[in-house]
Amino acid sequence: GTVTITDSTFSGNSANQGGAIANGAQVTVTGSTFTGNSGSAISNSGTLNVTNSTFSGNTGGLTAGAIYSTGNLSVNFSTITGNTSTMGYSGGIRINSGTATVNNTILANNLYNNTLTNCSGAFSGSNNLSDDGTCGTSSVSTNIHLGSLGNNGGSTQTIPILEGSDAIDHAVCGAVTTDQRGISRPQGTACDIGAFEFVARWWVYLPMVIK
Q1: For 147, which DSSP code?
Q2: What tens digit of pLDDT does each residue of 48-65 get?
Q3: Residue 208 DSSP one-character state
């Protein structure tokens, strides 16, 4: 069948493969957060489409920490960071077989056996940002500047990109007009990479009047 998941949180689930979701059919995930799941957050052998979603703190054994796929995978405007794997070749995404397209996505600080390894396997796509060279044609940067998972508005927790990040204004919006929180994209000259759209803060300083 077909499953659509929107604005949801999967936390603290465990399985041999796919602690949160084990998909053999067709699943679309939008605006959702996966954290603290083991056996990888999602194991996909069907068709999986992920947009505006956050993966952090998930663990995998023989699979990847965040997403393990042997089917058809599409990831767009998502943030995948701080996930780990001990035997799955990648802390972030592992493409074992099938097809995969990843666009406008941050892949950073994912560890395999305590070594920075964000990706394993081949995928197509563009405008991705990674802090190592394992994610194909993704731009490599040590200036991604991510905050911590928390309540930043919206119905699910997100990881903010901070001022000065190379993720800012380096994505192509396409049909995606909001971020995971529902904030309009773009806020600058172009959309931001990842699930979070950076909003500049403009402070107005008023003179102090001393009486």
Answers
A1: -
A2: 999 999 999 999 988 899
A3: P
**φ and ψ of 47, to 5 deg:** -120, 125
User: Which residues on neighbouring strands pair with residue 54, listed in sequence order?
Assistant: 33, 79
Angstrom distance (rounded) from CA 149 to CA 168 = 18
What is the DSSP code (8-state) at residue 28? Answer: E
Contact status, residue 96 vs residue 66, Cβ threshold 8 Å: no
Answer for the pair 101, 145: CB distance below 8 angstroms, yes or no.
no
Strand order in the sheet with 26-30: 2-6, 26-30, 47-51, 72-76, 99-103
pTM: 0.93
- Which residue type does 60 have? G
pLDDT for 84-124, tens place per residue? 999 868 999 999 999 999 999 999 999 999 999 999 999 99
Give the span between the Cα atoms of 154 and 178, in whole angstroms: 11
